[in-house]
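Long-time lurker, first post. I've been practising inverse folding by hand and with some scripts of my own, and I keep getting stuck on stretches where the structure tokens seem ambiguous. Below is the full token string for one chain I'm working on. Before anyone asks, I'm not after the true native sequence, just a reasonable design that respects the backbone. If someone could post their per-position residues I'd love to compare against what I wrote down in my notebook.
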């Protein structure tokens, strides 16, 4: 996160003090993050994303390659596999999503998602959240 904050300051031509003033936080908070002493709080991340709506939250939090929301990714989407699901379950889920047969309101999709949550794992883990990404850049998220 330190590197991303440093990049953001350079790309927006901001000093640590002006950045802190913009986010309405203490300059020492920014200094501590830039020095690697502390990590940003959730509140700071929220303020940062509100102050810079062009910043891609997935880049900031999840290491997405797109820094800005309107950038086109350089590589095509490839689903991330989960060790909590068998390869047959994963293939079935991704095939269903690709064929647009999975609808957030359909009973079948809710049953499929319930099955994913209740599937036993070989590693003793369980699924807590399923996120379905649609081609129109929307998503549905299901939590246990």
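-- Answer (accepted) --
I ran through it position by position. Result:
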């Amino acid at each position: 996160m330190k590197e991303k904050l440093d990049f953001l300051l350079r790309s927006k031509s901001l000093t640590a003090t002006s950045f802190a003033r913009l986010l309405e936080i203490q300059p020492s908070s920014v200094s501590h993050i830039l020095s690697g002493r502390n990590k940003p709080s959730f509140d700071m991340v929220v303020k940062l994303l509100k102050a810079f709506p062009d910043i891609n939250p997935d880049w900031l939090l999840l290491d997405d390659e797109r820094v800005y929301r309107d950038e086109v990714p350089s590589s095509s989407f490839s689903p991330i596999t989960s060790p909590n699901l068998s390869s047959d379950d994963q293939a079935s889920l991704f095939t269903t999503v690709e064929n647009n047969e999975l609808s957030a309101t359909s009973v079948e999709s809710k049953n499929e998602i319930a099955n994913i949550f209740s599937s036993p794992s070989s590693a003793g883990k369980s699924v807590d959240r399923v996120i379905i990404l649609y081609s129109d850049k929307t998503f549905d998220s299901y939590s246990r």
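A couple of notes from the structure itself: Residues 87-143 form one domain. The beta strands are 129-133, 139-143. Happy to go over any region you disagree with.
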